[in-house]
Amino acid sequence: xxxxxxxxxxxxxxxxxxxxxxxxxxxxxxxxxxxxxxxxxxxxxxxxxxxxxxxxxxxxxxxxxxxxxxxxxxxxxxxxxxxxxxxxxxxxxxxxxxxxxxxxxxxxxxxxxxxxxxxxxxxxxxxxxxxxxxxxxxxxxxxxxxxxxxxxxxxxxxxxxxxxxxxxxxxxxxxxxxxxxxxxxxxxxxxxxxxxxxxxxxxxxxxxxxxxxxxxxxxxxxxxxxxxxxxxxxxxxxxxxxxxxxxxxxxxxxxxxxxxxxxxxxxxxxxxxxxxxxxxxxxxxxx
Length: 287
Hints:
The chain is an alpha+beta fold. 68% of the residues lie in helices and 7% in strands. It comes from Paracerasibacillus soli.
């Protein structure tokens, strides 16, 4: 899940900046006679914000495959016994979740135990795993995969996209207000350049601040996916999966950067920037 959110946010920031630059170059009608028109600016901000969010959603599965090096498993092709077991488990749990179209199933190389689900729709989703079969027993693997399938069945990527669209709207809106104010303090001939540069800078700053809201929602959805995973695989397997993840994190060094990539257990001091709640809290909530 942490991987999914990270790449979605990264793509969103890049797409948002690109669209913003295009709008800035070709101009817009929210500044007239040296005055900032808040109504038109809000409309422009919503167009940029939601366009960026939905483009990021459309690219999410493709980005995950390319950036993570995911090897998609063909259910009708030759597979090893372990690969076949993963595909069969994902498909079985997906049918139990009521999904009509089976997610793509992928495996990728990674130093850490990991799994994520992504995709623009339930019809075009992807569940990818790494290291689960080596570090966990079959029941724990089933719990982890059930959790990811629950994300797909819950439509978490779509609701995340709508939330990101709202956040983007305010990011674009506030960045342009601040940029306009900053440009008033320089000479007229420099104002357009300062205004353009300030938009980029403040949009990045506000995007980072806005990600706190997205991360908070992500942590909230993890509890829902845990309950969904318990419904699909059984409460005992879901709890066993979480306890296995906790045991894995305890076995490695606290300074191991691979845990930061997995994001399965946010440290309390950086909780607002974690995509996942603390594992102890997840186990407690599930119980």
